[in-house]
């Protein structure tokens, strides 16, 4: 009976995959296929849990097979990350007219990412206050106990790393090792090396135009190949999102959602508040927030379901360039920098909320302006080097809590609802990097409002 149930679940899964493939063959809009996969995953996952339970043998075995599609898609995207980061940043330098724009783009992107992270940290602290979570105690079960042990082991590895040492870790000693993503800080190390290559190119272009032009052609050719691979991989998005959402809904613990319900509500209240602040900034830039949402929703919905800022990078850059009218340089800079600097959700709201929750247990008054300012500053500084892949939020929280001298067990206690909250965090991370690109492009007067206001100009045109 168990084997028959597993076969039935997998048969339905394959049938939905075939349905999504049929929609693609009929040239149904990419965004509609993404939403169809998202909705089908929610319903199918919920039904699996309802019939067989989150920890049932049928559910676990079925999800193991279903994860081939979901995890496989994420790995295809991650396969592209390092090459795309390198070639995107270097190509951005080839598209910059003069060093003045370089300074404006980099300063605007960094200011936006770090400034909004500071605001996000403050929003997270306020959310803890509003929902009376300061000093809250959470239920500790077997899963939480095991997670706490892992967290404490990880904490021991980073406990002796000072801030100067952390900064040193950003510097690439072996570019090829970082290109292979062998360290937690490999992404930002590749970003730094790429910036060196780009700046060197500007010098060569000025002193030796012939070689500069030759290098630009090589980078443009490599970029074209990489982006073609990106297009091919993104066509798998509806299938990957369907599988990922099925897994999330089928394996989430309903009891854990109830026990940590207030924390989860407080987290999403903070995330939604910060998202509205992003839209307010868009409105302040004299752009329509509604039009912005229409253009960015495909990539934001993917980020929500995939829980990977790095995985969303290719679609992030394409959305900025082809749907919003952001210039190439700003789109590439903001998308790649946003992977490792100033993530509003994972490196802003999340660690700030955890710090605010446990601070009272150590005699700290979170209503004290100096305590709030201290948490915000540490969160902003610690937001450097947080990789946009699984575990980035945990790493950021450990750094913040460790620096403040607070217990890290809180990170393990909320592990049961981590996947649900991480969906919203990732969506906010990606949106912040897009926001940085829009503001940068507006500042250097390269933003194409015609593309922004054109309903047909979206990433779905090539999908």
UniProtKB/TrEMBL annotation:
The chain crosses the membrane at residues 6-22, 34-52, 72-93, 105-131, 185-204, 225-245, 257-285, 370-389, 395-417. It is found in: Membrane. The keyword Disulfide bond does not apply. Keywords: Amino-acid transport, Membrane, Transmembrane, Transmembrane helix, Transport. It holds the Pfam family SDF. It is a multi-pass membrane protein. SUPFAM superfamilies: Proton glutamate symport protein. Belongs to the dicarboxylate/amino acid:cation symporter (DAACS) (TC 2.A.23) family. This is L-cystine uptake protein TcyP.
